[in-house]
Amino acid sequence: MLKPHVFSLLLMAGLCSSSPTQADPPTTASMLANACAACHGLNGSSQGPATPSIAGISAVYFIDAMTAFQEDERPATVMNRIAKGYSEEQIELMAEYFSQQPMIRTDQPFDPELARKGDALHQNNCEKCHENGGRASDDDAGILAGQKIPYLRYTLDDILNGKREVSVKMANKLKTIHKSMGQDGIEQLLNYYASQK
Amino acid sequence: MHTTRRNFLKISLATTVSATAAISPAIRAATTRHVIVIGGGIGGSTAAKYLRLMDDRIKVTVIEPKSHYTTCFMSNEFLGGERDFKSLQFSYAGLARHGVDLIQDRVTAIDADKQQVKTAGGQTLHYDRCIVSPGIDFRWEAIEGHSAELAERIPHSYQAGPQTLTLKKQLEAMPDGGTVIIAPPANPFRCPPAPYERTSQIAHYLKTHKPKSKILVLDDKPNFSKQKLFEAGWKRHYGYGSSNSMIEWISVDNGGHIESIDPKTNTVSAQADDFKADVINLIPPQKAGRLAFQAGLTDTSGWCPVDHQTFESRIHKNIHVIGDSAIAAPLPKSGYAANSAAKVCAAAIVSLFNDTDIIHPSLINTCYSLIAPNDAISVAMVYGFEKGKIIKMKGAGGLTPEDASDQMRAREAAYAHSWFNNMTHDIFG
Fold first, then answer.
1. Measured between CB atoms, which of A16, A59, A82 is closest to B396?
2. Which of A27, A39, A139, B264 has the fewest CB neighbours in a 10 Å radius?
3. pTM of the model
C-alpha cells in the first residue's frame, strides 16, 4: 500500500539515524507521549467522540500523519500546529511508542442495521488492505475498527473532497461507493467500524 | 523497493527505542518512598495517578478537603445551557483504583525542614517529596467593597462548584432586557481565554432565552487571548460591532478597570463610569492558592518560583509546586498545561528517587473555546526545555486560522468535547 510522504520520511529517518540533532535535547518516548494523552487518551486510546485513537498504529503511519500535519497537507484542528513542535527524531520515538500500545476500544453508539450492511461493504472493498475487520495495522494501514464515528466521518469526507491524500486505489474505492450509494454507503461503513469491539 | 525502505526505517526505529529503554529507571529505591500530593485538582490528581503509573513502589497520598472535583473547563458550556452540571463532577475513585491513598482533610501547615504535613483533622504525615497544587486565590483587596463572603452573592465562578450554580441561577432569574456584567482580571490569571468563552456562552444562553439582554465586559486589560477570533465569533452569532450588539467590550484603556463594588445597588464603579447590572460576574485579580502562602512557597509576585525541569520549589527543597500557582511561563496557567506539567513533575520525582538522569521536559498546551454550539476556536503550543527554562518550540503552535470554515470550526467543537472526555479520563479515570 503506497502512502504519500513515505519517501520523504524515509529520507528523514536516514538523516536522523546518522546523528542526533543538537538543537533537540534528550528526552524519552514516554515523556513525549504523556503530553498527548489529554487529547488522545492514556497511551493513545481515545475516549472520543472525535479525537482518534493512535494506539497500535504502525510507526510508518504515525510518521506519515505527523509529516502531513507539519506540511499542512492534512486538515486538522490543532494537530498541524502541534506537529511542528517536534523534530524528526522525536516523532520517531513517539511513532515507535504508540505502535507498541494496544488500542483499547470503548463502546460507542451505532446502528446495527447500518453496521450489518457496512460489513458487506467493508469485506468487498476495504478488507484487502484493512484486514481483520479494520483491526490490523499491518502494511501501515490505518486502524478503523473501533475508531470513533465523527473522526472517521471527517476523514472519509476529507478523502472524498480531495483534502486528505491517500493511495489512488483507496480514493477510487471510496468514490465508487459514494457515487453508487451516496452518504448512505459511507454511514454504513462508519457504523460497521463503530460496531467492532 | 518499498519493502526494503520500510525495513530500513523499522531498523532505525528499533535502534532508537532500545536507546530509550537503556535510560529508563533501572535502579530502584530499597525502601518505600512517600509522596504527599496536596490538592486534588488537575495538577495534583494527574501527578498522583502518573506517579503510580510510572513507579508503583511509590506510596502516594492525596490530601483534598472536597469529596469530588468540579472542572472549570466546560463549566461555561453549562452556563450556556448546553451541558449538565453533573458532567463536570468527578470522584476520586479512579485515583484509588491506581493505588493512590486519599485523605479528605485540609492541610494546615507544611514543615519543609521536618518534611511533614499537618492537617486540620489532626494528622501529621511525613513525606519524602511533597507536591503542592493549590490552584488560585483572589486579591479581594484590589476591589473596594469586595470580599470572599460577598463573592457568594456576586460570584466569580472561577473555581467551579457552588458559585457556578449561583451564576446560572442568577442568569435564569434575570428579566429579558437585563444587563450582565462580566469583569475579567488583569494578567496573570487562570485560563486566559475563559472569561471570553464565558461571555460567548452567556450570550448564547441570553440569545436563546432573553434576547433583549446585554452583556457588558469591563476588562482590566487592553487586549485578550484569541481576541480576533472571539470578536469574529461574536460578530457571527451575537451582532458584535453592530448597533444591536448583545456584547459590549470596554478595555482598560477605555475605563474598564473596576475600582469598587456596591452590593446594595448591584453597581460597580469602573474608571469609565458606574454601571448597574442584574447579574455581576466579577473575576478578581489572582495569586497563588492559600496553601502556597501558608507554606512560604511564594515570592513577591504572589506566585511560586520553581525549577522548570522538576517543578521543585526554588524556596523549599523537596516540595514541588505545579498548576496555576507555579511560575512556569511561557507555560500558561491552564488545565492542559497543569496536566502536562504534573507528568513532567512525576517523571522528575521518579528520577530523583532512583538517582537517574532527569528527563528533559516536553509539554503541550491545547485550549479550545466554545463560541456557540458547533463553533469553537483553539490555541495550542508545544514546549521544550533549554538552558534551564521551559521554552516554546519555534514554528509550533498558534491559533485557529481566522479564515477557518464553518465546517472546521464545527470540528473544533467536536474536538473540544473530545478534549474534555480524554482530559478528565486522563486525570480521574
1. A82
2. B264
3. 0.91
